[in-house]
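It is worth pausing here to work through a concrete case rather than discussing structure prediction in the abstract. The textbook approach is simple: state the sequence, then state the predicted structure, then interpret. We follow exactly that order.
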Amino acid sequence: MTSLSVNLNKIAVLRNSRGGTEPDICVAATAAIRAGCQGITIHPRPDARHVRFGDVMALRDLLPDTVELNIEGNPFAPPRTGYPGLVSIVEQARPQQVTLVPDSDNQLTSDHGFDPMIDSDRLISVVNALKAMGTRVSIFVDASVHGLDRLRAIGIDRVELYTGPYAAAHATGEGKAGANIYARVADDARLAGLGVNAGHDLSQSNLEDFLALVAPIDEVSIGHALISEALYDGIETTVRRYLAIITKAAGA
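Step two, the predicted structure:
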């Protein structure tokens, strides 16, 4: 069945806007775990706009063995003060999964994926280094992606489908047509020997339709919508609602 990884970046955004330690990202993670999530996702950016290196290490020490840590980031972003670089972070934190995302410093959020036809060669050394650390390697891709066999050839384990366009289509009533595009690329990925994750703008309103049309999906990573909904209903209640949607979709 699909795993739910809760992205906690927005907890750190709220904390950083005021300074100090509240809200506490580890307390938020504990609430999500208590509700039954299978993973925690964080994206430590070089500018430290939300999750910071210290948060990564604190979560590493907090999470039980039954809950996976997924660290997202751009492996080509150079180290700087407070940010030792993605590969170095992974080396120290040893997450179960790392998700490679081609974001730049000035991006508000991740909005596109790597292109296997263009990026595979330069990713080889990065993937080799990460695999040597024992972590599963996933890579953020668009629904229009081609050349997925190249990703498997360089050792990548999974793709994460960028679902922003699906969420936008769903909001206008075109969710089925939008999801069909993802179903095709998910099939292509599985045929190439890749696992399939999905994330970005998934929410309680569109997740069930997505899973029904695109399954099987190994993992969904959900942050912005989940944390927004949790402001009203609480983290545990919100996480349980997502897990109920996943369970319902699995039985459909």
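Step three, interpretation. The chain has a mean pLDDT of 95. DSSP finds eleven helices and eight strands in the chain.
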